[in-house]
Amino acid sequence: MIQQKGRLLVIKLGALGDFVLATGPFAAIRAAHPEEEIVLLTSAPYAELARESGYFDDVWVDERPSRIALIAIQRLRRRLRGGRFYRVYDLQTSGRSSWYFRLMRGFMRPQWSGIAFGCSHPHANRKRNSMHTIERQAEQLAMAGIPETPLPDLSWATADISRFALPERFALIIPGGAAHRPGKRWPADSYRALAEDWLNHGITPVIIGGPDEADLAVEIANGTNTLNLAGQTTFADIAALSRAAAGVVGNDTGPMHIAAICGCPSVVLFSGESDPAITAPRGPDVQVLRRENLADLPVSEVAATLSLR
User: Fold this and answer.
1) Which helix (H) or strand (E) holds 244?
2) 122 and 115 Cβ atoms separated by less than 8 Å
3) In what order do the strands lie in the sheet with 37-42?
4) DSSP structure string for 175-199
Protein backbone atom coordinates (compact mmCIF):
# COMPACT_ATOMS: atom_id res chain seq x y z
CA MET A 1 0.00 0.00 0.00
CA ILE A 2 1.26 3.49 -0.85
CA GLN A 3 2.22 5.19 2.42
CA GLN A 4 3.06 8.77 1.47
CA LYS A 5 0.64 11.34 2.90
CA GLY A 6 -0.63 14.28 0.92
CA ARG A 7 -3.09 15.34 -1.73
CA LEU A 8 -3.90 13.48 -4.92
CA LEU A 9 -5.67 14.53 -8.10
CA VAL A 10 -7.69 12.17 -10.28
CA ILE A 11 -8.64 13.38 -13.77
CA LYS A 12 -11.71 11.87 -15.44
CA LEU A 13 -13.66 14.29 -17.62
CA GLY A 14 -16.13 11.96 -19.41
CA ALA A 15 -18.01 10.77 -21.37
CA LEU A 16 -20.68 8.99 -19.31
CA GLY A 17 -19.76 5.43 -20.26
CA ASP A 18 -16.07 6.09 -19.65
CA PHE A 19 -16.90 7.75 -16.35
CA VAL A 20 -18.90 4.84 -14.94
CA LEU A 21 -16.27 2.35 -16.16
CA ALA A 22 -13.76 4.37 -14.13
CA THR A 23 -15.58 3.62 -10.86
CA GLY A 24 -13.37 0.54 -10.49
CA PRO A 25 -10.19 2.62 -10.74
CA PHE A 26 -11.74 5.23 -8.42
CA ALA A 27 -12.24 2.52 -5.79
CA ALA A 28 -8.71 1.19 -6.33
CA ILE A 29 -7.17 4.63 -5.87
CA ARG A 30 -9.17 5.25 -2.71
CA ALA A 31 -8.16 1.85 -1.29
CA ALA A 32 -4.49 2.56 -2.05
CA HIS A 33 -4.65 6.02 -0.42
CA PRO A 34 -7.12 5.60 2.46
CA GLU A 35 -5.90 8.51 4.57
CA GLU A 36 -5.08 11.00 1.85
CA GLU A 37 -7.14 13.80 0.37
CA ILE A 38 -8.29 12.88 -3.11
CA VAL A 39 -9.67 15.51 -5.50
CA LEU A 40 -11.43 14.65 -8.76
CA LEU A 41 -11.29 16.94 -11.77
CA THR A 42 -14.28 16.19 -13.99
CA SER A 43 -16.87 17.72 -16.30
CA ALA A 44 -20.00 19.38 -14.95
CA PRO A 45 -22.49 16.60 -15.89
CA TYR A 46 -20.64 14.05 -13.73
CA ALA A 47 -19.80 16.17 -10.68
CA GLU A 48 -22.86 15.21 -8.63
CA LEU A 49 -22.45 11.52 -9.41
CA ALA A 50 -18.83 11.77 -8.31
CA ARG A 51 -19.80 13.42 -5.03
CA GLU A 52 -22.37 10.69 -4.34
CA SER A 53 -19.78 7.97 -4.88
CA GLY A 54 -17.86 8.65 -1.69
CA TYR A 55 -14.49 8.11 -3.37
CA PHE A 56 -13.42 11.76 -3.28
CA ASP A 57 -12.87 14.43 -0.67
CA ASP A 58 -13.55 17.17 -3.19
CA VAL A 59 -14.78 17.44 -6.77
CA TRP A 60 -13.61 20.18 -9.11
CA VAL A 61 -15.42 21.03 -12.33
CA ASP A 62 -13.19 21.54 -15.34
CA GLU A 63 -14.24 24.55 -17.42
CA ARG A 64 -12.31 23.05 -20.36
CA PRO A 65 -10.80 26.36 -21.57
CA SER A 66 -9.66 26.60 -25.15
CA ARG A 67 -5.95 27.04 -25.67
CA ILE A 68 -6.43 30.63 -26.75
CA ALA A 69 -8.48 31.61 -23.66
CA LEU A 70 -5.43 32.95 -21.87
CA ILE A 71 -7.15 34.25 -18.73
CA ALA A 72 -9.04 30.99 -18.23
CA ILE A 73 -5.85 28.99 -18.81
CA GLN A 74 -3.99 31.02 -16.20
CA ARG A 75 -6.85 30.49 -13.76
CA LEU A 76 -6.75 26.74 -14.36
CA ARG A 77 -2.97 26.65 -14.06
CA ARG A 78 -3.06 28.48 -10.73
CA ARG A 79 -5.69 26.08 -9.42
CA LEU A 80 -3.84 22.96 -10.51
CA ARG A 81 -0.50 24.13 -9.15
CA GLY A 82 -2.11 25.56 -6.03
CA GLY A 83 -3.58 22.17 -5.22
CA ARG A 84 -0.10 21.00 -4.19
CA PHE A 85 -0.79 17.49 -5.37
CA TYR A 86 2.09 15.07 -5.02
CA ARG A 87 0.53 12.60 -7.49
CA VAL A 88 -1.96 12.77 -10.35
CA TYR A 89 -3.84 9.80 -11.77
CA ASP A 90 -4.85 10.85 -15.26
CA LEU A 91 -7.64 8.41 -16.18
CA GLN A 92 -8.70 10.57 -19.11
CA THR A 93 -5.38 10.06 -20.92
CA SER A 94 -6.33 12.47 -23.68
CA GLY A 95 -4.53 15.31 -25.39
CA ARG A 96 -6.33 17.74 -23.08
CA SER A 97 -5.43 15.99 -19.84
CA SER A 98 -1.83 15.52 -20.99
CA TRP A 99 -1.76 19.26 -21.67
CA TYR A 100 -2.63 19.77 -18.00
CA PHE A 101 0.61 17.91 -17.17
CA ARG A 102 2.47 20.61 -19.07
CA LEU A 103 0.54 23.34 -17.26
CA MET A 104 1.81 21.92 -13.95
CA ARG A 105 5.50 22.02 -14.91
CA GLY A 106 7.78 23.66 -12.41
CA PHE A 107 9.48 23.05 -9.08
CA MET A 108 6.51 21.23 -7.52
CA ARG A 109 5.39 19.18 -10.57
CA PRO A 110 3.65 16.07 -9.19
CA GLN A 111 4.19 12.43 -9.97
CA TRP A 112 1.93 11.61 -12.91
CA SER A 113 0.25 8.38 -14.01
CA GLY A 114 -0.90 8.67 -17.60
CA ILE A 115 0.44 9.06 -21.11
CA ALA A 116 1.85 12.59 -20.99
CA PHE A 117 5.37 12.78 -22.43
CA GLY A 118 7.92 12.83 -19.63
CA CYS A 119 5.53 11.77 -16.86
CA SER A 120 6.87 9.76 -13.93
CA HIS A 121 4.53 6.75 -14.20
CA PRO A 122 3.64 6.27 -17.87
CA HIS A 123 1.24 3.63 -19.08
CA ALA A 124 3.96 2.13 -21.22
CA ASN A 125 1.99 -0.18 -23.48
CA ARG A 126 1.98 0.68 -27.16
CA LYS A 127 -1.16 -1.42 -27.64
CA ARG A 128 -3.15 0.42 -24.97
CA ASN A 129 -5.57 1.90 -27.51
CA SER A 130 -6.67 -1.58 -28.58
CA MET A 131 -7.51 -2.63 -25.01
CA HIS A 132 -10.94 -2.46 -23.41
CA THR A 133 -11.20 0.50 -21.04
CA ILE A 134 -11.41 -1.74 -17.97
CA GLU A 135 -8.21 -3.67 -18.72
CA ARG A 136 -6.41 -0.56 -19.97
CA GLN A 137 -7.01 1.43 -16.81
CA ALA A 138 -6.24 -1.53 -14.54
CA GLU A 139 -2.88 -1.95 -16.29
CA GLN A 140 -2.19 1.78 -16.03
CA LEU A 141 -2.76 1.69 -12.27
CA ALA A 142 -0.65 -1.45 -11.88
CA MET A 143 2.24 0.38 -13.55
CA ALA A 144 1.73 3.17 -11.01
CA GLY A 145 1.89 0.81 -8.02
CA ILE A 146 -1.76 -0.18 -7.54
CA PRO A 147 -1.82 -3.90 -8.40
CA GLU A 148 -5.53 -4.66 -8.01
CA THR A 149 -8.42 -2.78 -9.62
CA PRO A 150 -11.99 -4.00 -8.97
CA LEU A 151 -14.69 -4.08 -11.60
CA PRO A 152 -16.91 -1.00 -11.97
CA ASP A 153 -19.50 -0.69 -9.20
CA LEU A 154 -22.56 1.55 -8.87
CA SER A 155 -24.12 -0.03 -5.78
CA TRP A 156 -23.93 3.36 -4.08
CA ALA A 157 -26.03 5.04 -6.83
CA THR A 158 -29.56 4.87 -5.49
CA ALA A 159 -32.75 6.84 -6.09
CA ASP A 160 -36.46 6.78 -5.29
CA ILE A 161 -38.17 5.94 -8.59
CA SER A 162 -41.69 5.63 -7.16
CA ARG A 163 -42.62 8.93 -8.84
CA PHE A 164 -42.58 7.19 -12.20
CA ALA A 165 -45.51 4.90 -11.23
CA LEU A 166 -43.87 1.96 -12.94
CA PRO A 167 -45.81 -1.18 -13.86
CA GLU A 168 -44.97 -4.49 -12.22
CA ARG A 169 -43.07 -5.76 -15.25
CA PHE A 170 -41.17 -3.46 -17.57
CA ALA A 171 -38.08 -3.37 -19.76
CA LEU A 172 -35.90 -0.45 -20.77
CA ILE A 173 -35.21 0.99 -24.20
CA ILE A 174 -32.18 3.26 -24.63
CA PRO A 175 -32.47 4.43 -28.25
CA GLY A 176 -30.18 7.46 -28.20
CA GLY A 177 -26.50 8.12 -28.54
CA ALA A 178 -24.17 10.77 -29.82
CA ALA A 179 -26.17 13.02 -32.15
CA HIS A 180 -23.17 13.53 -34.42
CA ARG A 181 -22.87 9.76 -34.99
CA PRO A 182 -26.32 8.63 -36.20
CA GLY A 183 -24.81 5.44 -37.61
CA LYS A 184 -24.48 4.12 -34.06
CA ARG A 185 -28.28 4.16 -33.60
CA TRP A 186 -30.70 1.36 -34.40
CA PRO A 187 -33.60 2.91 -36.38
CA ALA A 188 -36.53 4.35 -34.43
CA ASP A 189 -38.95 2.15 -36.41
CA SER A 190 -37.10 -0.91 -35.18
CA TYR A 191 -37.29 0.22 -31.56
CA ARG A 192 -41.00 0.89 -32.01
CA ALA A 193 -41.55 -2.61 -33.39
CA LEU A 194 -39.61 -4.06 -30.45
CA ALA A 195 -41.76 -2.04 -28.03
CA GLU A 196 -44.94 -3.34 -29.66
CA ASP A 197 -43.64 -6.92 -29.36
CA TRP A 198 -43.02 -6.43 -25.65
CA LEU A 199 -46.47 -4.91 -25.14
CA ASN A 200 -48.03 -7.92 -26.85
CA HIS A 201 -46.36 -10.10 -24.22
CA GLY A 202 -47.39 -8.03 -21.20
CA ILE A 203 -44.14 -6.12 -20.79
CA THR A 204 -44.24 -2.33 -20.65
CA PRO A 205 -41.42 -0.62 -22.58
CA VAL A 206 -39.84 2.30 -20.72
CA ILE A 207 -37.75 4.72 -22.78
CA ILE A 208 -34.93 6.62 -21.14
CA GLY A 209 -32.62 9.21 -22.65
CA GLY A 210 -31.49 12.79 -22.43
CA PRO A 211 -33.56 15.91 -23.15
CA ASP A 212 -32.04 16.14 -26.63
CA GLU A 213 -33.50 12.71 -27.40
CA ALA A 214 -37.07 13.68 -26.52
CA ASP A 215 -38.25 13.79 -30.15
CA LEU A 216 -36.78 10.36 -30.81
CA ALA A 217 -38.54 8.97 -27.73
CA VAL A 218 -41.86 10.45 -28.86
CA GLU A 219 -41.43 8.91 -32.29
CA ILE A 220 -40.98 5.48 -30.72
CA ALA A 221 -43.66 5.77 -28.03
CA ASN A 222 -46.39 7.74 -29.78
CA GLY A 223 -49.73 5.90 -29.93
CA THR A 224 -48.63 2.99 -27.72
CA ASN A 225 -48.62 2.29 -23.99
CA THR A 226 -44.88 2.79 -23.87
CA LEU A 227 -43.74 4.89 -20.90
CA ASN A 228 -41.56 7.77 -22.10
CA LEU A 229 -39.13 9.05 -19.45
CA ALA A 230 -36.73 10.81 -21.81
CA GLY A 231 -35.30 13.88 -20.13
CA GLN A 232 -36.73 12.95 -16.72
CA THR A 233 -34.06 10.72 -15.20
CA THR A 234 -30.86 11.36 -13.31
CA PHE A 235 -27.92 8.98 -13.53
CA ALA A 236 -28.97 7.53 -10.16
CA ASP A 237 -32.52 7.07 -11.48
CA ILE A 238 -31.13 5.07 -14.40
CA ALA A 239 -29.25 2.84 -11.96
CA ALA A 240 -32.39 2.25 -9.90
CA LEU A 241 -34.52 1.61 -12.98
CA SER A 242 -31.94 -0.87 -14.25
CA ARG A 243 -32.07 -2.89 -11.05
CA ALA A 244 -35.86 -3.16 -11.29
CA ALA A 245 -36.19 -3.81 -15.04
CA ALA A 246 -36.61 -7.22 -16.66
CA GLY A 247 -34.03 -6.24 -19.28
CA VAL A 248 -32.72 -3.48 -21.51
CA VAL A 249 -31.97 -2.98 -25.20
CA GLY A 250 -29.95 -0.01 -26.35
CA ASN A 251 -27.22 1.39 -28.55
CA ASP A 252 -23.56 1.85 -27.75
CA THR A 253 -24.19 4.77 -25.41
CA GLY A 254 -23.45 5.83 -21.83
CA PRO A 255 -26.66 4.77 -20.02
CA MET A 256 -26.16 1.21 -21.28
CA HIS A 257 -23.01 1.03 -19.17
CA ILE A 258 -25.01 1.99 -16.09
CA ALA A 259 -27.64 -0.66 -16.83
CA ALA A 260 -25.05 -3.38 -17.44
CA ILE A 261 -23.02 -2.60 -14.32
CA CYS A 262 -26.23 -2.67 -12.25
CA GLY A 263 -26.93 -6.21 -13.39
CA CYS A 264 -29.80 -5.60 -15.78
CA PRO A 265 -29.91 -8.25 -18.55
CA SER A 266 -28.58 -6.19 -21.44
CA VAL A 267 -28.48 -6.42 -25.22
CA VAL A 268 -26.20 -3.78 -26.72
CA LEU A 269 -26.42 -2.93 -30.42
CA PHE A 270 -23.20 -2.06 -32.25
CA SER A 271 -22.69 -0.81 -35.78
CA GLY A 272 -19.41 -0.82 -37.66
CA GLU A 273 -18.65 2.65 -36.24
CA SER A 274 -17.43 1.33 -32.89
CA ASP A 275 -15.69 -1.78 -31.61
CA PRO A 276 -17.28 -3.77 -28.77
CA ALA A 277 -13.88 -5.29 -27.96
CA ILE A 278 -12.83 -1.83 -26.77
CA THR A 279 -16.04 -0.08 -25.68
CA ALA A 280 -18.73 -2.68 -24.89
CA PRO A 281 -20.55 -2.39 -21.58
CA ARG A 282 -19.48 -4.93 -18.98
CA GLY A 283 -21.73 -6.62 -16.46
CA PRO A 284 -22.99 -10.02 -15.31
CA ASP A 285 -25.49 -10.42 -18.18
CA VAL A 286 -24.47 -8.55 -21.34
CA GLN A 287 -24.91 -9.68 -24.93
CA VAL A 288 -23.70 -7.79 -27.99
CA LEU A 289 -25.35 -7.78 -31.43
CA ARG A 290 -23.43 -6.17 -34.26
CA ARG A 291 -24.08 -5.23 -37.87
CA GLU A 292 -22.01 -2.99 -40.08
CA ASN A 293 -25.25 -1.08 -40.71
CA LEU A 294 -27.67 -1.34 -37.78
CA ALA A 295 -30.64 -0.96 -40.13
CA ASP A 296 -29.85 -4.52 -41.21
CA LEU A 297 -30.39 -5.92 -37.70
CA PRO A 298 -33.83 -7.60 -37.54
CA VAL A 299 -36.23 -6.87 -34.70
CA SER A 300 -36.87 -10.59 -34.35
CA GLU A 301 -33.21 -11.27 -33.58
CA VAL A 302 -33.07 -8.56 -30.92
CA ALA A 303 -36.33 -9.78 -29.32
CA ALA A 304 -35.07 -13.37 -29.28
CA THR A 305 -31.70 -12.39 -27.79
CA LEU A 306 -33.36 -10.67 -24.82
CA SER A 307 -36.01 -13.28 -24.09
CA LEU A 308 -38.57 -11.71 -21.78
CA ARG A 309 -41.53 -13.99 -22.51
Assistant:
1) helix 235-244
2) yes
3) 58-61, 37-42, 7-11, 85-90, 111-114, 121-122
4) ----TT-GGGS--HHHHHHHHHHHH
Q: Rounded distance, CA 155 to CA 84, Å?
A: 32
Spatial distance between the Cα atoms of 207 and 214, rounded to a whole number of angstroms? 10
Tens-digit pLDDT profile for residues 83-130: 999 999 999 999 999 999 999 988 788 999 999 999 999 999 999 999
- CA distances to 132, 142, 170, 243 from 128, rounded to whole Å, are 8, 13, 39, 32
Residue 38 near residue 8 (C-beta atoms within 8 A): yes
Q: Could you tell me the end-to-end alpha-carbon distance of the chain, in angstroms, rounded to an integer?
A: 49
Would you say 159 and 229 are in contact if contact means Cβ atoms under 8 Å apart? no
**In 3-state terms, what secondary structure has residue 138?**
helix
pLDDT digits (tens, 9 = 90+) for 141-197: 999 999 999 999 999 999 999 999 999 999 999 999 988 899 999 999 999 999 999
Closest CA to 186 of 219, 157, 163, 210: 219
| Spatial contact of 234 and 208, defined as CB atoms under 8 Å apart | no
Neighbouring CB atoms inside 10 A of 74's CB total 12
Beta carbons within 8 Å of 105's beta carbon, 6+ residues apart: none
Domains, the chain, ordered by start: 7-143 (3.40.50.2000), 162-305 (3.40.50.2000)
Mean pLDDT of 256-282: 97
Is the full-model pTM beyond 0.90? yes
Determine the distance from the C-alpha atom of residue 70 to the mean position of all C-alpha atoms in its chain, rounded to a whole number. Answer: 31
